[in-house]
Amino acid sequence: MNPSESLWLKQALQGDDDAFAALVEAYQRPVYNLCYRMLGNSEQEAEDAAQETFWRAYQALRRYDPQRSFVTWLLSIAAHYCIDQQRRRRIPLTSIDDLLEETLPCPASNPETLTGQAQEAEALRNLLQDLSPTDRAAVILRYWYDFSEEEIARTLSLSVSAVKSRLHRARLTLAQRWQATHSQTPLVGRRQHESPAF
Amino acid sequence: MNHQPFETWLFEESPQDNPALQEHLQTCPTCQQTQQNWQAVRQQMQNAGQVAPRPGFSARWKAGLEQRRLQARQRRQVLIASLVMTTLLITSLAAFGLWAAFSAPAGVLVFLTRSLTTLLTLNPRDTLQWFNTLPPAVPLLFSLGLVSWLILLGLLGFNTLRRITRQGDERL
Known about the structure:
The structure holds 2 protein chains of 2 kinds. By secondary structure, chain A is mainly α. Chain A contains 9 helices and no strands. Chain A has helices at residues 3-13, 17-38, 43-59, 70-89, 96-103, 111-129, 133-143, 149-156, 160-184. Chain A starts with a helix and ends in a 14-residue tail after the last helix. By secondary structure, chain B is mainly α.
């Protein structure tokens, strides 16, 4: 945490809402990204979850231990909230707006690149959706935030051995799921109705 | 076929540095396939990067904060009002129960019928008469309930004032 962030934290603890808003500004991206990946790439749900995370952090600020990293604490709140949401929901939902945003090309971008990006985003979303909420959180923290197994354990309130076993199971599931998806996909270079190459 | 411990080693950070695994991969197409799949997944995750929210996130958070505070205040008011109402109801029922316990059953029945008739007719003279017919224990219990309620409300008010004052001190 840099000195200005320590100062904002101190001021926020004294009841300064502007200081807390500065912390929101500084950490919005990692918190939002975690919610976005956890909740199946839905922008509106990720926004709501990230806002809720900062509200919960604001309410619990007095319980924050300054010895701990502030962003890790925020991500812990976000992960627990998203896990709860996923357990309640079970069925993944995607809003029509999000689907349109993912599929409609932006005039400024190259349409082919954008379609490829949207497909990749969708493929990644599908892969992660196959994991249990806690396993998904562990994978996201490991590969998007470079958290160690100990940090993941602290963030998700699990033991290190539980994190290791969850990560192993999740990696294996992702690899198997990847193979299942790609063995069904026809070869990219071949057109429909085209005769197979001998 | 059991692919352990190779399957575990496949997912480690540097599987290429493990000679035993590399040797196994030469002869095991299943583990080879798993390794390729996992590398493809990792590549996909690396390419995805971090997603940022729409601009104005912190401004929306500040606006939301005001709204949440208002809602929290309203919830507190509703809670206090329902607490007051519930305690009033319980005190009244307890007072009536006490009085009924010390009276004859016929007397209670007569009292209830008379009260109901008086309330339905809403005649001021009858209402005054109804007050005169009340047993001496009822006004006493009513007064006790009222006093205890005033004390409780006073304590709640004092606590609210203390919290507001403390909040103000902390903001200085």
